Amino acid sequence: MVDIVNKTKQFGLHFSICQEAKEFVSYREHGVAFEFIVNHLYEQNSAIDKPFYELIKVTGNRMKLAEDKWNFLEELIR
């Protein structure tokens, strides 16, 4: 999850959003951090690349989250 948080900066998420996500992780709220980042990426229509999407997908699967928690990000791949 830390990898995702650290890489979100390169896709345009504001520093404060990344910091808030890191706080969720530090409190072991990985699912909350995951959804927080995914939702902000989508709301800001942030362009992402295929490797980052794959990282999101693998992480979501490892966390046993439903695909509908992240699969909408696929339309942001550029």
Radius of gyration: 11 Å
Number of strands: 0
Low-pLDDT segments, ≥5 res? none
Reading the helices and strands in chain order gives HHHH
Structural domain tally:
1
Structural class: mainly alpha
Strand content: under 5%
Number of helices: 4
Biggest pleated-sheet summary: none
Approximately how much helix is present in the residues? 55-70%
Mean pLDDT: 95
Give a written overview of the molecule.
- By secondary structure, the chain is mainly α.
- It has four helices and no strands.
- It has one domain.
- Helix 1 (2-8) packs antiparallel against helix 2 (15-26).
- The longest helix is centred in the middle third of the chain and has 14 residues, at 30-43.
- The chain is globular and about 30 Å long.
What are the defining features of this structure?
78 residues; mainly alpha; 4 helices
Which helices and strands occur, and which strands form pairs?
Blueprint: H1 2-8, H2 15-26, H3 30-43, H4 50-62
Briefly characterize the structure:
This protein has four helices and no strands.
